[in-house]
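Hello support,

Our group uses your service weekly, and this is the first time we've seen a run hang past the timeout. The protein is PadR family transcriptional regulator. I'm not sure whether the cause is the sequence or the server load. Input pasted verbatim:
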Amino acid sequence: MDQLTGFQRDLLYVIAGKDRPSGQAILDDINDYIEQPVTHGRLYPNLDTLVEKDLVEKGQLDRRTNYYALTPKGRRALQRRQEWVDQYVDV
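Update from on-call engineer: The timeout came from a worker crash unrelated to the input. Re-ran successfully.
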């Protein structure tokens, strides 16, 4: 996780909170959070990086739509990250 950008970590949280979201669903959620609109040109290369790092699985919902889901490795990494954050932040 320390090798990821903050944006990539945010993507992991969005994916974890959804059931196999499409790229568009991820984009919609991330744009609700980030002030500067995220473009497809920024989103998809970052999703591909997460897939290459085996943190996210990419599959097809139909011919035009892919889904994304955390892999077991991604879920463990996100859980470790959250435990690390929780030791410093008590909200």
